[in-house]
Design goal:
Layout lengths: L2 E4 L3 E6 L9 E3 L1 H10 L5 E8 L2 H11 L7 E5 L4 E6 L5 E5 L17 H4 L8 E6 L3 H14 L2 E6 L8 H8 L5 E5 H8 L4 H9 L5 E4 L4 E6 L2 E6 L12 H14 L4 H15 L11 H18 L1
Length: about 300
């Protein structure tokens, strides 16, 4: 196995501005990140903790795509549930659970640990990880990374325990190969006032960054260069949930495979375009879908690379 997607498995419900909702969808950053890698290669696996009820909602996706589940450990009765509420202006907020069930009780308990990761990281090329700003965890993970020789992509979780998150991020980053944040996280975690200021901060770091700016597109900041690629549309746009996770995991894949910074941004935006076409996860991976994605990649590289 070349790549690991490590984060939470969740159930997602999308609430729309008109009061309707999508029902319960299989999701969470681990599954969306897996999708972002699986679109380009079959050599990837999910590593996550979940509730005993996870298979009920993930079954069709797992069986259709022959997804290995040996990295998914059942540790509780219930899988955590996210509800994303979109406003008419396109902004959103999220909360944990639905009224009366699937609340926050398991979020800490189901958080991935170093012990969960160790059995799966021999001979891998890269690891995608969505995780909070946590020094002790990264101290252990960086030690493991040096022992095993894989590259590490850190998607920084917005929630944090620190009054000085930027200072702690800057302490961790020199030992990370590539990382990612979005516009809102740039303001909240780095203390910037706008995307332009965030970009200047990110350019000062030695670690490459995939900077996501929502519907506008994304920047790849690497080797002192900044490449912006606008969002790519494949003609059908239903739900943006998980686009950040899927595109960030694609950045890990492209980075490890030696693509240029501009090519990375193009590839990531193509993944997001596939992810946005349906509620929940990309339903079926195939050789035909991958060939289509790579053809689109070649066409957009002519424009942006």
């Amino acid at each position: 196995m070349d790549y690991l997607a490590i984060a939470d498995l969740l159930f997602d419900t999308v609430e729309f501005a008109d009061g309707s909702n999508s029902g319960i969808n299989a999701g969470g950053p681990a599954a969306f990140a897996y999708s972002g890698i699986r679109l380009w290669t079959d050599n990837c696996m999910i590593v996550s903790n979940a509730g005993a009820d996870y298979y009920e909602h993930f079954k069709n996706w797992i069986e259709t795509n022959k997804i290995a589940t040996k990295g998914i450990k059942v540790k509780s009765d219930f899988t955590n549930h996210f509800t994303l509420s979109y406003r008419s202006d396109g902004s959103y907020e999220y909360r944990y659970g639905l009224p009366g069930k699937f609340g926050t009780i398991n979020f800490g308990y189901l958080r991935i640990s170093i012990e969960d990761i160790v059995p799966f990281c021999d001979n891998i090329k890269g690891m995608y990880l969505e995780h909070p700003i946590e020094k002790e965890f990264f101290k252990q993970l960086i030690k493991l990374k040096k022992q095993k020789g894989f590259k590490l992509m850190w998607e920084i979780q917005r929630e944090n325990y620190w009054n000085n998150p930027r200072e702690v991020i800057e302490e961790i980053l020199p030992n990370i190969d590539i990382f990612s944040i979005n516009s809102r996280e740039g303001r909240e975690l780095l203390g910037s006032h706008n995307d332009e200021e965030t970009i200047e901060i990110l350019k000062s770091y030695p670690t490459p960054c995939f900077f996501r700016v929502g519907a506008k597109g994304s920047y790849m900041i690497m080797n002192g260069e900044t490449h912006f690629v606008p969002s790519i549309s494949l003609g059908k746009e239903e739900d943006p949930t998980g686009c950040g996770n899927s595109s960030t995991a694609t950045a890990l894949y492209a980075f490890c495979e030696g693509y240029s910074s501009a090519e990375i941004a193009v590839m990531c935006n193509i993944t997001a375009a596939y992810n946005v076409r349906q509620y929940g996860l990309i339903p079926k991976f195939s050789d035909e879908l991958r060939a289509e994605a790579r053809s689109i990649f070649s066409e957009y590289c002519k424009k942006y690379v």
